[in-house]
Amino acid sequence: MLEGKHQIKHSDVIMQLLVYYCCLDVSQNQQAFIDASLKELEHILGKSPLSLNYSFRQLPTDLKNKIDFDADDLFKISDNVVRILNQELKGIRALLKLLVCTEYESGLAKLCRNYDKSAWWGVSTDWMAVVYKLDNKYAIWHETLHLLGAHDCYRKGKDGQVIDRGPTCNANCVMVYAPSEETVNIKKWPFLCEKNLCKLRKKFDHTAKNK
């Protein structure tokens, strides 16, 4: 056992949760931008008042190849994602959800926009978030944060279509509709409303407790 100042108590160890993402048909420059954007978000989430220990990792190629991203139904793809992750990530402290980054004109992006006509930049389901505005880190963060428990700060109808672009919160919040540097000040952290801060903490605690 380590002694003195080097001794680490279990209660002092912050559990780390992995979050996987994959890129479909993107350029090297786009890949580098996505990687840097997620690394920045990882650092930000680790800061107070959240102090969440997430680590964003690219999905291994062998697992990526098992997912049929060419299916003609968004929810079939989403169900396939969670089935593969459940099978392949047993025993790994990971969020069983996937961020998919793809070109705006890709088949998957078009499928998303057919499902939700108001989804200019991305869409999220229960198990997967898809982003296709790859030159905007705010859009990448917005969809990623859905996976981590955040909700939109605008209103949708029963059919899932946007009926009020809001924002429905009065905060500096990246979960507004079509977030950008004009609408969100990322120099002022937290750039999330209080409701979403609570949702992120609750999601992390619940997931960590069950790993």
Can you characterise this structure?
With 211 residues, the chain is of the alpha/beta class. It has one domain (14-152, 196-209): Rossmann fold (3-Layer(aba) Sandwich). The chain contains 6 helices and 7 strands, in the order E-H-E-H-H-E-H-E-E-H-E-E-H. The protein has helices at 28-45, 61-64, 74-88, 107-115, 137-147, 194-209; strands spanning 17-24, 54-58, 94-102, 122-124, 128-131, 155-156, 162-164. The strands form 2 sheets. Strands 2-1-3-5-4 form a 5-stranded mixed beta sheet, sandwiched between helices. The protein has a two-stranded antiparallel ribbon with strand order 6-7. The protein is globular and about 40 Å long. The relative contact order is 0.14.
Short description:
With 211 residues, the protein is of the alpha/beta class. The chain has six helices and seven strands.
Number of domains: 1
Order of helices and strands: EHEHHEHEEHEEH
How would you sum up the global shape?
globular
CATH architecture: 3-Layer(aba) Sandwich
Low-confidence stretches: 1-13
The overall strand count is 7
Quaternary status: single chain
Question: How are strands sequenced across the largest beta sheet?
Answer: 2-1-3-5-4
The CATH C-level name is: Alpha Beta
Average pLDDT confidence is 90
The biggest beta sheet, please? 5 strands, mixed
**Estimated helix fraction:** 25-40%
Strand content: 15-25%
| Class from secondary-structure proportions | alpha/beta
Determine the N-to-C terminus distance. 25 Å
Radius of gyration: 18 Å
Number of helices: 6
CATH topology category name: Rossmann fold
